[in-house]
Amino acid sequence: MSIAAVLISLLLSGAFIALDQAFRIESIITSACAYTPAIYPIEFLKNAMVYYLAVFVLYIFRLIRIENPRKFLVISALGLLFYSVYSAFYAHISLIKLAAVPCRIWLHHVIENVSGLITLALPLWFLWRITQKKSINGFYGLHARNLTPLRYIDVMLLVVAAMYFAMHLPGLAEYYPVLDNSYFRVCAAYFQVPKWLTALGFEVSYALDFVWVELFFRGFLVLGMLRFLGKDAILPMAVLYVVIHFGKPIPEVISSFFGGYLLGVVAYHTQHIRAGILLHIVLAMSAEIFAILMRSY
Predict the structure, then answer these.
(1) Contact assessment for residue 199 and residue 184, using Cβ atoms and an 8 Å cutoff
(2) What whole-number distance in Å separates Cα of residue 167 and Cα of residue 70?
């Protein structure tokens, strides 16, 4: 992977960020199409455009090679379709309307977080079984082979320290904790249970959501695309990873390229996504805890 390829991918990510900041494209799409059938094709077209444009730009500069282009397009498009359904999924809304009003928002967030098992993980599993079972180390890197407990403890401590300082950047302290958006206190009061119980239920589902994210980005888009794009599969993934962070604080959006790239490199060299899942959860939980502590004081 050349420095030029990384720089071009970074510039392309910067261009997408600038466009979104200037025209609020993500905000317009969300406000106009969220929770309507139109959101699914729109999300797919957006994700496909970003991903394939990144591949195309690297290809025309001869910084990436594509083996078996037709098969690459078919398999990658299916994966992008599955991810688009997962990211915009709202079919559970009809079920939530049957729940008690004070718990609907909490239940919405929890189901939304765990729904990736059905909307993303399961379809990807079928795709892996049919097309790439023999060529990939486990289910897109999701396996327990060569498991070494506490192997990444030093990196985890570094991530926690980095998040502590990051929480002082503009927008992050206001955006987190996402727990507050779940109305866990209202739901706890309705059921007359301790608030920590509904808070824990939300946070567990929130952590689980990162399994689906890592499975797709570092699993499918990196390990799953290696036989088509080689190790350069990391770069289009990193560009798309930036775009899916639109709507979050700008420091998080910008840093997502570097985070996505580094996790992609780790997945490539280790041939699994355990490190990405672990570090992603540690990062997210650190943001939650530090945000809560900062608001307490």
Answers:
(1) yes
(2) 44
The rounded distance, in Å, linking the Cα atoms of 232 and 62 is 12
Which tens digits make up the pLDDT trace of 54-86?
999 999 999 999 999 999 999 999 999 999 999
Quickly tell me which residue has 């200037």 as its tokens.
22
Task: Pick the range with the lowest mean pLDDT from 52-56, 85-89, 155-159, 202-206.
Answer: 155-159
Question: Taking the CA of residue 210 as centre, how many other CA atoms within 13 Å lie in the half-sphere pointing to its CB?
Answer: 19
Question: Which has the closest alpha carbon to 267: 259, 275, 258?
Answer: 275
Q: Which of 93, 53, 81, 20 is nearest to 248 (CA)?
A: 20
For the chain, the C-alpha Rg in angstroms (whole number) is 19
Two tokens, residue 88: 């915009």
Indicate the SS3 state at residue 205: helix
Residue 281's alpha-carbon distances to 40, 186, 218, 236, in angstroms, are 27, 26, 14, 23
When divided into structural domains, the chain yields a total of 1
Domain that holds residue 286: 3-296
Per the confidence metrics, is the pTM higher than 0.85?
yes
